[in-house]
Amino acid sequence: MCHQSVGLIQSIIERAGIPTASVSVLTEVTMKVRPPRALAVDRPLGYPLGAPNDVALQTRIIEAALALASRPTGEPVVVPFAG
Question: What value does the CA radius of gyration of the chain take, rounded to a whole number of Å?
Fold first, then answer.
């Protein structure tokens, strides 16, 4: 349910002119909701940024998600995390 809620909220925030990006571990759900921008990560449910205390990986995921926020969008953008 969270992936759906976040995607819907993102769309509302974007309509107000504020860029958004989310991190998703359930790509198939994210694709159905069609959020403006999402980073698809291959991590277990509940750990979208990876294992606790893995600061290097967490930083890479957050930076990748923030980079998406600067991309213009007309159609939903779901990008796989390549790191």
Answer: 12
